[in-house]
Structures are given as C-alpha cells and as structure tokens.
Design a protein that fits this description.
Chain A: Pfam families: ABC_tran. Chain A: It comes from Actinacidiphila paucisporea. Chain A: Keywords: ATP-binding, Nucleotide-binding, Transport. Chain A: Belongs to the ABC transporter superfamily. Chain A: GO terms for molecular function: ATP binding; ATP hydrolysis activity. The complex is a heterodimer of chains A (306) and B (532). With 306 residues, chain A is of the alpha/beta class. Chain A is 33% helix and 25% strand. Chain A has two domains: 207 residues, 3-Layer(aba) Sandwich (Rossmann fold); 60 residues, Alpha-Beta Plaits (2-Layer Sandwich), CATH 3.30.70. Chain A contains ten helices and 13 strands. In chain A, the strands form three sheets. A six-stranded mixed beta sheet of chain A has the order 5-6-7-3-8-9, sandwiched between helices. A four-stranded antiparallel beta sheet of chain A has the order 11-12-10-13, covered by helices on one side. In chain A, strands 2-1-4 form a three-stranded antiparallel beta sheet. In chain A, a hairpin with a 4-residue loop joins β11 and β12. In chain A, α2 crosses α3 and α3 crosses α4. Chain A starts with a strand and ends in a 12-residue tail after the last helix. The relative contact order of chain A is 0.15. Chain B is an alpha+beta fold and 532 residues long. Chain B has two domains: 251 residues; 224 residues, Jelly Rolls, CATH 2.60.120. Chain B contains nine helices and 17 strands. In chain B, strands 2, 3, 4, 5, 6, 7, 8, 9, 10, 11, 14, 15 and 16 form a 13-stranded antiparallel beta sheet that branches. A two-stranded antiparallel ribbon of chain B has the order 1-17. In chain B, a hairpin with a 4-residue loop joins β5 and β6. Chain B starts with 20 loop residues before the first helix and ends with a helix. The chains are: A alpha/beta (306), B alpha+beta (532). Chains A and B meet through α2 and α7 of A and α1, α3 and α4 of B.
Chain lengths: 306, 532
C-alpha cells in the first residue's frame, strides 16, 4: 500500500455550522506535514473523517487509495493519536497496548518494543489514570507505533509535553519521516511546527488556506520588505518616502521598508549621507506568516465580540 | 515535489496475517480482563448471588405445632417420574397377575366440604360441612403397582367437574366423555391390562364403549393391585384482590359402584385400604372414610388426591428456584459491568481508539457481546451451580421440606440461570451502546427486568396483571428458573407469585431473548450510523 493520504473535497455540517467546507490536501511519504489552523478550523474533524470515525457529507479521504474502513489490521497501515486522554483510567499502560496488539494479531513482544520506544518502560505497569498529560501523549505515541505503520496521524501531540518531551517528540517525528513514512501532525500553534514540519497545510473555516513548503510560506510572507537599522530614523524616513517607498517604524532604530529593493535603499541613503548600521531583506517568522494567512479565518479572534 | 521528501515510502517488515473476528474478540477479551474492577465485579456477581440465597435461607425458620407434637419432618413421596406426588385415596382392591381388566358401573358421586377450612374431614355430616363436589374429586377403577404411596398406576375415573378421565403415573391426564353422573344416567368405566400397556374405556350404556387412551407403565410387575378408588382434594378459594391470596379446606366424596366385573387371574379377597393414611385422613375413631359392600354395590368414601404435589403460596415446602433468589442481585451487578464495558469507552473517548483498531463496527459490537455474554454465562453457571446445592442444604438443615425435582430440571435451571446472566449482559451492553451513558442504560435494564419481576412475583399485583407482565416483559425470562409444573388436574392458584409463570421455561426465556435481539439490532444500526 502506498503511504499517502488523499483528502478530496470534504464537506461536513454540524447543524448550521459548516465544519468542513471543501477540505482538500495530500500527505506524501517521507516528510512531516504540519496541519495548522486556529481552533475550530476543522483539523480534528478532518482527522476523524480520515480515520473513518466521522462520516463526511461529501468528499473522500483515502489512505493508499482505500477508505479507512476497508483497511484490514488497520493499525499496521495507519497509526493515530487523536486524544491522549482516551484511556480507561483503571487499566495499566501495558494493558492498554496489549488489547490493541491482540486486536491486530500482534504479539505481546511488540508491546514491550513500543513501550521502550516511547520511554514508558518504568511506568508501563501503572494505571493510566495516574499519568500526566505528557505521559499519556507518550502512551498515545506508543499505541500509534504498535503496528509499525507507514502512515501516522497525530492531533496536537505536543499538548501538555514538557520541553524535554517536545524535543523528544520532534526528534521522533523527524526520524519517522526520514524512514519514509507519511506523517500528518496537527497543531494550533505554528511555533510548535516551526522547526519540525517540512510541509504545511494551513486551514481555516473548514478549508485549506495554504498548502506549501515551509520555505515558500516564509518567503511569501516576507514579501519584498527591507529591514533597516539606523540611528537617524527621521532622516531616513524622509529620504525613502521621497523615493516612493512605504516606510514603517518598527523600533527606535529600526524601519521596515517596502516598495523598493534593498540595493535601492542602500543607494538612496548613501547619496543622502544618512548613516545606517544594517540593511537586509526582511525575513518573516512562521508565526507571522501564519497570522497573516489566518487573520480572516479565526473563529474567535482575541478581543473580538463573542 | 517540494521540501525534503525522500523518495522511498516506508515498508513495514511486519507480517500481520489475516484480519478477522477472532482478533477483534481477542482484543475485547484482553480489554475486559485488564480492568481489575470488572474482573472483581464479575466474581462479586457470583458471590452475591450465592450470598443472598444463603441469607434468605439463614433468615428463614419453620415451626411446627400440632396434635402430634410438632414434627416438621416431611418425607416427600415421589412418583415414578421423580416429582413429588400426593397419593391419598380410599382403595378397594384385589391382586391381578398377568393380563386382565376391570369393568364397573358408577351410579352416584356426592361430596362434602368445609367452607373456610374449619371442619375436620372425619367429623361427619352436621359439623360444618356442606354438600358439593370438587372439580377434581375422582371415583373409578385403578390398576396400581401395590398400595405403597407413589407407586405407578393407571386409572379411569369419573370426576366432579371434568367428566371421565384416564390418568396415570400422577402427571398424565386424558379426557374421556364429559358430563356428570346420576342414578338415571350412570357411567360405565373399564381398564384393561396387556403387559405394560393399560387401556381406558368409558361408556354411557355398558354396550357402546369409547377408548379414552392408553398408558405404557414401563416395568410394571406381573402381579398388580386392581380395584376401585375414591378420593377428593381440598377445595380452593382464590380471592382476586390486590396481593390476591387463596385458601381452602378439606373435602370428601362418596361413590357407589355396582356391576363389578373382573377379567384375568385375580387373587385374594377384596381389601379396603386408606392409601396415604392414617395421617392423611382422620383418626381411626369416628371415621367414615372406607368402604361398604352390600349386594354387589360398593360404596367408597375417600379424601385426598392422587396427583402431582404442586407447591404454592402458603405451603412450607421450598422449590429449587427459591435457592436462586440471589440471582437478582447478581444480575444487576452483571448488567452494570456489561454496560460499563461500552459506556466507559464513550465517556473517555476510548471508543474512537477501539474503532480505529477495528473499523467494522458490527464486528466490534459482536465481539463485545461475545465477551460479556461468555463471562456472564460462566458467572451465572458457577453461581447457580453453587447456590442450588448450598442453599438447599441450609434449608434442609432447618427442616424445610424441599420439593424434589428431576435432575434434568435442576440442570435446566442452573444452565437457564447462566443463560439469563448472559443475555442480561448482552441486553445491558446493547442499551449502553444505544444510550452511551451508564446511568441511563442500567436504569433501563432495571426497569425492564426487575420492576415487572417484583410487581409480578412479589405479589404486588393481582394474578391477572402479573401473568401479563411475566408474559410480555423481559421478566418473562425468569420462567427459565421455574421447577414447578402447572397441572390441569390439580386446582391451585397458579400465579407468578407462587412460582408459576404463564409461559414455559424456554418460551419465557425466548421473550427475553427477543428484547435483547431488538436492543442489539438497534445498537448495531446506531453504532454504524453515528459518528464515533
């Protein structure tokens, strides 16, 4: 089976609200695809539809060309982590993995392997009800890895993890992608994916806003803006504005210039003998790019009327 | 392609083999056994079943007082089929060796009974007894394996209210010519023996005979007793008020026979016996029970019954199902666990994990039902197999008479109780799947099973509504624990409160299975249709 997730034209309504409004994207093997968007953008619903848990009103979600319900021993095709809290509190971590293994015809030995891989060896026989959220995430990862699947789907796996756990999770996801697996990871915080994802599917209001590589997204958000550092801020603003540039003061000694390139800025300032210490193309953060994209798609913007 | 994608998709080295129901089942079984509370709860369900039965037995007491000084010792008389029987009559007999027969004419049958049950049977006329026949007063001819109580027999008799009947070995009853007898319209009765086969006939003119039926009394010895008998059972009054009750009193009957004709190798002289006496009848002095012979006319006065002994309210005897009163409590525990087996998943969102592991939802429901059904069956089987002999032993140690039941009935009751546990668990699981909430599902199970059972069996409602409840509601299932039998030829108050369900054991259980099947079907449809 080819390890590809193809989501095509998914639509789903919950009463008057369109949770999914033509969601379309593809997750390819060998890289981490970040699935980002504000809360309520339809990330979890899309994942539930992919996993055959929710049915879409329209559209298809295929894994290697098959609907999830058509998969046999599905955990060997797709590993998923939707809700780390989905545990019977009185069952031990090992018990949880054991019933999953048995349901797939996997031996108990495989449980021990994933327990070790998730760093749960010392806690495996404890009741899952006593686990911290971070440990539950590790248990969820162990469950997702149980069938050694070529496709992984994880909903907010960084939630509740301590910094050490986040570093571990990033390393794990990268190595899984490096092995040639397709990895889809959702987050409502772009910063979590900044140094993790190779590719991004940005969603808002049930549809895809951007489907691009991380580098392209940042380049697009950066535009042709130039960042300038100067002690003579007022002088510089006058000179550049006369040349037709749009200038914005972003700090006591920094300006952002758009409309003209960095070479032209340097030339103008040199001719006018305005001193400057630094000049360069503006590089947007992923966070900025994301904010830009999702400005219109945020369901409940901060400060907005609820 | 953008980004740092590598070209080779991942291939697992793992071979998982074929998918199937057994894997889902294995997963669900592991799921069940890895929650200690459920395993402990299952053991508790068995223990509580036994404990409540023992508690009932330990709390019971029986005290006997009477003219003889109050011994409660009760030795049950059992018939050829192993069930408890009554065998009390006035019998006039001779021996018969080999094949033969008896023919008589019966010219009168009259009875007396004591309304309110106050008079002594043997006290004679004028001491509170009034004239009247009981419906199952019997007078006729009989072939019997000796005069010991409970021995095999076949008889053709005229009854007080059901015409001529052929009855044999206590539990069998065949209808002959209907109608009553009088001096102007006598009745002829005939019973013939050929080996093990006895054939009954009746006639209204002594010329034209009608065959009533035949009985095969296996193992009947060559020499048997053949003759005339008369007996008359207690009369029964059933009041139909709330928590209706019945009471009754003794009766006796006198019948006159003539034209007695015997066939075959008969021996000995005519001998009169009060079978089942003397404790069944009055004391020797002043008794008018017995027989007189004058000019070929035999007049027999008898009291008692030749019929199965049926337990009922007010009788001190305990039936085997009373040892299983605790099944109730056990069922509730099982229902709670079975409900939790699915509702706990909904509560935590674990159902999504389950359905990603096994996307075929009907298969998941079937696997869950198989697990809780099998676990509950084993629980019910262990509980009933322990409770029945243990509680019986306690009751016996307290001198409670136990109604004997054939072994096959005991097995049916124990296995039936196990099946009751299993189907209750499946029903609870299905309701839990439909409602997705423990409280609602458990409440529904209790309302569906326990409420009608209590209303009907604890005699809260009168007999009529009780019968409907135990026929139509899931409480019909408790019929599977019924050891008692309803006999048309014995008049007692056959109500659910007395342990008599309107449906046969497996028919009642099927009603319950119908409910469970409907719930499972609804659960399967909703589980498939709804988002998880």
């Amino acid at each position: 089976m080819e390890a590809t997730i193809e989501v095509t034209g998914l639509r789903k309504r919950f009463g008057p609200t369109a949770a999914l409004d033509g969601m379309t994207f593809t997750v390819t093997p060998g890289r981490i695809t970040g699935f980002v968007g504000p809360n309520g953008a339809g990330k979890s619903t899309t994942m539930r539809v992919i996993l055959g848990l929710d049915s879409a009103d329209e559209g298809t979600a295929l894994i290697g060309g098959l609907r999830y319900r058509a998969l046999r021993n599905p955990l060997s095709h797709v590993g998923s982590l939707l809700d780390a809290g989905a545990l019977q509190p009185s069952r031990s971590a090992r018990g949880h993995l054991l019933w999953l293994a048995h349901s797939q015809g996997l031996p108990a030995r495989r449980v021990d392997e994933v327990v070790d891989a998730a760093g749960l060896a010392t806690a495996a026989r404890r009741k899952a009800g006593g686990f911290s959220l971070g440990m539950r995430q590790r248990l969820g990862i162990a469950a997702a890895l149980l069938g050694d699947p070529p496709v992984l789907i994880m909903d907010e796996p960084f939630n509740g993890m301590d910094p050490e756990g986040i570093v571990w999770m990033r390393g794990l996801l990268r190595s899984l992608a490096a092995e040639g697996r397709a990895v889809l990871v959702s987050s409502h915080l772009m910063s979590e994916l900044q140094d993790t994802a190779h590719h991004l599917v940005v969603v808002g209001r049930g549809r895809v806003i951007a489907d691009t590589s991380v580098a392209d997204l940042i380049a697009a958000a950066s535009g042709d803006r130039v960042t300038l550092r100067t002690t003579a801020r007022a002088q510089a603003m006058t000179v550049l504005a006369q040349a037709g540039a749009v200038v914005a003061a972003t700090g006591p000694e920094t300006l952002t210039v758009s409309g003209i390139g960095s070479q032209r800025v340097a030339g103008l300032l040199g001719r006018a003998e305005v001193p400057f210490s630094e000049i360069g193309a503006h590089r947007a953060t992923l966070e900025e790019a994301y904010m830009e994209l999702t400005r219109d798609a945020v369901e409940f913007p901060a400060g907005g009327a609820r | 392609m953008t980004g740092t994608a590598t070209a080779t998709p991942y291939r697992s080295a793992r071979h998982t083999g074929r998918d199937g129901f057994l894997r889902t089942l294995h997963g669900e079984w592991t799921k069940f056994r890895t929650v200690r509370g459920w395993v402990i709860g299952t053991v508790a369900a068995a223990l509580v079943t036994v404990a409540v039965g023992l508690l009932g037995a330990a709390g019971s007491s029986i005290a006997c007082s009477g003219p003889d000084g109050g011994s409660c010792d009760h030795t049950p008389r059992t018939g050829p089929g192993g069930e408890e029987v009554r065998d009390a009559m006035t019998l006039v007999h001779r021996s018969l060796t080999g094949d033969g027969g008896i023919t008589v004419r019966i010219t009168s049958l009259a009875g007396l009974y004591a309304p309110g049950g106050r008079a002594q049977v043997g006290a004679g006329p004028g001491t509170g007894m009034v004239a009247g026949l009981q419906p199952w007063t019997k007078a006729g001819v009989i072939v019997k394996d000796g005069t010991k109580e409970g021995s095999a027999y076949a008889a053709v008799a005229l009854t007080g209210g059901h015409g001529v009947r052929m009855q044999y070995d206590y539990t069998h009853d065949l209808a002959g010519t209907p109608g009553a007898v009088s001096a102007s319209s006598p009745r002829w009765l005939r019973l013939t023996r050929a080996g093990d086969t006895l054939t009954g006939y009746d006639s209204t003119d002594g010329t034209h005979w009608a065959t009533i039926g035949t009985a095969h009394l296996a193992g009947l010895p060559a020499t048997v007793q053949m003759g005339l008998f008369t007996t008359s059972p207690e009369y029964v009054v059933t009041s139909g008020s709330f928590s209706g009750s019945s009471y009754g009193g003794p009766s006796k009957a006198t019948a006159a026979f003539d034209s007695v004709a015997l066939r075959g190798r008969t021996g000995g002289a005519w001998t009169g016996d009060l079978v089942g006496g003397p404790d069944r009848g009055p004391g020797a002095g002043g008794s008018d029970l017995g027989y007189k012979e004058s000019g070929g006319t035999y007049t027999l006065t008898g009291s008692g019954d030749v019929a199965p002994q049926v337990p009922g309210r007010g009788s001190p005897g305990k039936t085997v199902e009373t040892t299983l009163v605790g099944a109730f409590a056990g069922l509730m525990v099982v229902a709670v666990i079975a409900t939790m087996f699915v509702t706990a998943e909904y509560r935590r969102g674990l159902i999504r994990t389950t359905l990603t592991a096994s996307p075929l939802r009907g298969r998941v429901l079937a696997a869950k039902a198989a697990v809780v059904g099998a676990v509950s069956f084993a629980t019910g089987l262990a509980a009933a197999a322990v409770a029945v002999p243990l509680v019986e032993a306690v009751e016996k140690s307290k001198h409670f008479p136990m109604y004997p039941t054939p072994f096959a009935t005991d097995v049916r009751i124990v296995v039936g109780t196990a099946a009751l546990f299993a189907v209750t668990a499946v029903l609870a699981l299905a309701l839990g799947t439909v409602l997705r909430r423990s409280a609602g599902a458990v409440t529904t199970v209790v309302v569906a099973i326990v409420l009608p059972y209590i209303l009907a069996v604890a005699a809260v409602l009168p007999a009529g509504p009780s019968r409907w409840l135990t026929r139509l509601t899931p409480a019909a299932a408790f019929a599977v624990q019924q050891s008692v039998h309803q006999y048309a030829q014995v008049s007692v108050d056959y109500t659910p409160a007395d342990g008599y369900f309107p449906l046969s054991p497996w028919a009642g259980f099927s009603v319950f299975c119908g409910y469970a099947a409907a719930a499972v079907a609804a659960a399967a449809v909703l589980l498939r249709r709804r988002d998880a």
